Structures are given as C-alpha cells and as structure tokens.
C-alpha cells in the first residue's frame, strides 16, 4: 500500500510544483517559480520511491 501512497503524493507534488512554476513565470516572481521547481523535484523523488517499493515488494 505504501507504493500507491508514495506515487499519489508524488504526482500531487509534481502537479502543484508545475502550477507554482507557471504562476511564478506569469507574475514575474522568481521565488515562487523556484519553489515550484523544488516541489516538482520532491514529487519526482516520491514517485521514484513508490516505484522502488513496488519493485522490491514483488520480489520479496
């Protein structure tokens, strides 16, 4: 179950990060854009963590 949770949280963070990046670019706010990039990367890491859990869980 942890696999799906990590993947879902990761996807949510990736989407929110992309929205922040777009809002930062639109409002000419580099700080908001940087926060969006950071959040997107965090989401990618969570998604990867879920994939690893899934791969290891199938082999155990």
Structure description:
- This protein is an all-alpha fold and 60 residues long.
- It is 92% helix and 0% strand.
- Helix 1 (2-26) packs antiparallel against helix 2 (30-59).
- The mean pLDDT is 92.
Question: Summary?
Answer:
The protein is mainly alpha-helical. The chain has two helices and no strands.
Distance between the termini: 15 Å
Structural class assignment:
mainly alpha
Helix content: over 70%
* Number of H/I helices: 2
Mean pLDDT across all residues, rounded? 92
Q: Please indicate the percent range of residues in DSSP E strands (runs of 2 or more).
A: under 5%
Radius of gyration from the alpha-carbon trace, in angstroms: 14 Å
How do the strands and helices of this protein lay out in sequence?
Blueprint: H1 2-26, H2 30-59
Task: Offer a few descriptive terms.
60 residues, single chain, mainly alpha
